[in-house]
Queue: 2 jobs
Job 1
Amino acid sequence: MLIKIKNAQMAKKETVSFGHSKLKFEIAKILSREGFIADVQKKGKKNVKLIEVGLIQDDGGARFSQIRRVSKPSRRVYRGYKEIFSVRKGFGLAIYSTPKGLLTDKEARRDKIGGEVLFEIY
């Protein structure tokens, strides 16, 4: 999902769609809330559900330049709230899977809760 968004952004597409899951939809809502993508919509019914994401182009370039997956199936990365630092001195964003659901690095620090680092975007 993340690479599809990145590739569509680099190809200057207006929208991109991919298969629906609750985790993907929550990640897309966070990215929309933080201003990395324009909007998120569910499309389809029952067995054929899709997520359609609207992309933002800034001055002919992409809204973000890198998406780096931190936790992988072969190596999970967990951090306590004291180990959570800002990404690229506040210009980036990290998504954490916590007991309270998916949170950004700022929200996790504010709530003093740690979790698994899913990815960083900047």
Note: The chain is about 25% helix and 35% strand.
Job 2
Amino acid sequence: MADTRDKSIDQLNSFLRGELSAVETYRQALEKLKDPSIATVLQQCQESHAERVRALTEQVASVGGKPANESGPWGTFAKLVEGTATVFGDKAAVAALEEGEDHGLRDYRGDLDDLGPVVRQFVQDRMLPAQERTHQAMSTLKKRLAA
């Protein structure tokens, strides 16, 4: 049982590091992007990721773990998006953000089997639907900018 709990904590912290990175990535993109209609969507996505940070932090603690407090290697992605926005503009930055949302969606869907039943239910009920919404928002925005 402890092994399942430890695996769940490790996986939750992996999700948490990804969410911390997403919050930072959106913050940096918002500093660089010029179009207010893009900024509104990015702010909504950032707020969703910030809420997931809070929920995952609480979940890790509730199962007896120590929540991660920094993005670790995920932070590199934030720097990539910031550079992309500066050099290539809004469309490229949105495409990079959408790629990050793709990655997050794959993580949540692909790592469910590593979780104990209670934690799996938490991820399926709260994290995955929120990730699907931000992924859809960025996908829609990317398509709108390409038109």
Note: The longest helix spans residues 2-32.
